Amino acid sequence: MPNFCTAPNCTRKSTQSDLAFRFLRDPARCQKWMENCRRADLEDKTPDQLNKHYRLCAKHFETSMICRTIYFSPYRTVLRDNAIPTIFDLTSHLNNPHSRHGKRIKELSEDEIRTRKQKKT
């Protein structure tokens, strides 16, 4: 069964690319990945849940954050230790005719992100 990319407006499946990365279990970095995705429905998920069920494809990372390594396998692609996804299409999800499963994903504005961060602290 293919894994879909978690990013809003992205319809890529892991079967379309071998470059799909799991969310990290490290709470601080996982939080940053989640915030950059701007999906309100991910906020209540733990890093373990995100790691187990959610992926981001390579197109959401700068090419400098992705490296091919020959240490494990010549076909193995990994993220650098400091990799953070920064490339997202944040246009309205409702305008995307290819949005998967017909789900509506609430995209957060900068103010909403700031407000939610303040509530958590």
Automatic annotation (TrEMBL):
Domain of life: Eukaryota
Domain (THAP-type) ranges: 1-88
SMART domains per UniProt: DM3 (SM00692), THAP (SM00980)
Coiled-coil region list: none
Molecular function GO terms recorded: DNA binding; zinc ion binding
Biased composition (Basic and acidic residues): 105-115
Protein keywords: DNA-binding, Metal-binding, Zinc, Zinc-finger
Segments of this protein annotated with the region Disordered: 94-121
Protein name: THAP-type domain-containing protein
Organism annotation: Chinchilla lanigera (Long-tailed chinchilla)
Classification of source organism: Eukaryota, Metazoa, Chordata, Craniata, Vertebrata
